[in-house]
Amino acid sequence: MISAKDVNELRQKTGAGMMDCKKALTECNGDIEAAIDWLREKGISKAAKKTERIAAEGLANIYVDGNKAAIVEVNCETDFVTRNADFVALVDEIGKTAVKSDAKSLEEVLALPVEGTEGTVNDLVIAKTAVIGEKLSLRRVEVVTKTDEDNFGSYIHMGGKIASLVVVKGANEDVAKDVAMQAAAMKPAYLKADDVPAEVLEKEKEILKEQAINEGKPADIAEKMVQGRISKYYKENCLVDQEFVKDSSMDIKTFVKNAGGEVTAMYRYEVGEGMEKRSENLAEEVAKQLAE
């Protein structure tokens, strides 16, 4: 009988998935040291060595199933791997698993069982890490639910470097698609002005005020100028306030309203945004691989 304690100990020592650890212990009659060797031979524990490495490349994608959609970003270390069939299949498996669930967080998606296997999404990521030979990670995922009155708009740009998903109430799919394209192209940080965090807004106001003072304006005049300039900030950073790229005479809010709708949600993933990028060159990477 393999105990949960032994499985957990093996996981701590190797970083392998729960089902892989259980299988290894079963194959080795509960001998932890032998199980470590078994995992090494299978290449599974090797994945644990890669956990500290930088994975800022990858793919973002969107999966729609009826009134549910899932937007995912899965990372790898090099752009080359994004064209690997095993990696593409991993992204698809995660997206298709997530969209069938009611998961509310990344942790919940990682714990989802994968159809046709004995493991979870997390176990699958670890197993593919061993196969592909790079650090892989599910960085973020969102499962979105809409009503029958809503339409999803989705757009994948640059072969999966950018994915945008919007929910539009009332208007048709073509309108929703145009809004998703806008989100992908113009990189809004927020859906609307009310979504801008208070601390972000205050910092922006301080910067704008300082700019006005540096231009020689008195403090009271600078304060008034901030109010005008903050509206420009909203027009640049909030989707519904942005100038519509297909018709500069209106903003997105007006475009959708004219079509009888309203944008109620936006999700935009750009692969690796905000992450540290790898600096190693190819020769150094090959040398590292050979040394392992």
Strand content: 15-25%
The average pLDDT score comes to: 89
Name the overall outline.
elongated
The assigned structural class equals alpha+beta
- CATH topology description of the domain at 53-145: Tetrahydropterin Synthase, Chain A
Describe the structure.
With 292 residues, this protein is of the alpha+beta class. Among the domains are: 4-50, Ubiquitin-associated (UBA) domain (Helicase, Ruva Protein, domain 3), CATH 1.10.8; 53-145, Elongation factor Ts, dimerisation domain (Tetrahydropterin Synthase, Chain A, 2-Layer Sandwich). It is 45% helix and 18% strand. It contains eleven helices and six strands. It has helices at residues 4-14, 18-27, 32-42, 85-99, 106-110, 121-132, 173-186, 198-214, 219-237, 252-258, 282-291; strands at residues 57-65, 68-76, 137-145, 150-157, 162-169, 262-270. The strands form two sheets. The protein has a three-stranded antiparallel sheet with strand order 1-2-3. Strands 4-5-6 form a three-stranded antiparallel sheet. A hairpin with a 2-residue loop joins strand 1 and strand 2. It is elongated and about 75 Å long.
Summarize the structure.
With 292 residues, this protein is an alpha+beta fold.
